[in-house]
Amino acid sequence: MEVRDRILDAALDLLAHGGAQELTQPRVARAAGVRQSHLTYYFPTRAELLQAVAYRSIDALAGSLLRAARRGKLGPDALAGALARAITDKRRTRTLLTLVGTADRDPAVRRRLVRFIREVRGRLALVIAAAEGPADPDSIAFLHTLVVGAAVLHLARDSSAARREARAVLRKGVTTLAASKGN
């Protein structure tokens, strides 16, 4: 496994188990088994590390969803289920919340986060187009907002009831999106 991958995996694990406060360069370097100078070679700042973790997470999710959609195995129920499973990954939600918190204080991170949101929506649009046909930007923004809100609420409550609610809400959102295309 490459050094960069070990660093990103270590960062994801630290986020999953301890949250944003665990994501310091010394802790990530130690968890990845590399010197801090190696970490800063790949990720000079915490913000760049967070961004890389976020992209890695979303690339993996979007890639699997797109493959399923292209095989014809991503109807509304399957898409809602896949999104529900994705949002129960605490690492993904904690990464997002840490990025948002950092962006609130750092204009450079805010600019990166704005680009990241555009790219996430672009990937979501590709998945929806492959599964159900093209969707307008407002529908993609609606679904993205629904996914993010469900992820945050799930993390806050972290229970089986929260998982069931997230799945139901996402199913409602996906079926609403599909139905709106029929009009």
For the biggest sheet, the summary is:
none
CATH-level-2 architecture of the largest domain:
Orthogonal Bundle
- Briefly, what CATH class of the largest domain? Mainly Alpha
Distance between the termini: 49 Å
Unreliable residue stretches: none
Secondary structure: number of strands:
0
The rounded Rg comes to 17 Å
Could you state the order of secondary-structure elements as H and E?
HHHHHHHHH
Structural class: mainly alpha
Shape: elongated
Report mean pLDDT, rounded to a whole number: 89
Q: Proportion of β residues?
A: under 5%
Can you offer a commentary on this structure?
- The chain folds into 2 domains: 44 residues, Arc Repressor Mutant, subunit A (Orthogonal Bundle), CATH 1.10.10; 129 residues, Tetracycline Repressor, domain 2 (Orthogonal Bundle), CATH 1.10.357.
- The chain starts with a helix and ends with a helix.
- The chain is mainly α and 183 residues long.
- The relative contact order is 0.11.
- Helix 2 packs across helix 3 and helix 6 packs across helix 8.
- The model has no long low-confidence stretch (mean pLDDT 89).
Features:
183 residues; mainly alpha; Arc Repressor Mutant, subunit A; Tetracycline Repressor, domain 2; 2 domains; 9 helices
Short description:
The protein is mainly alpha-helical and 183 residues long. The protein has helices spanning 3-18, 25-32, 36-42, 46-70, 76-87, 90-105, 107-132, 137-157, 160-181. 84% of the residues lie in helices and 0% in strands.
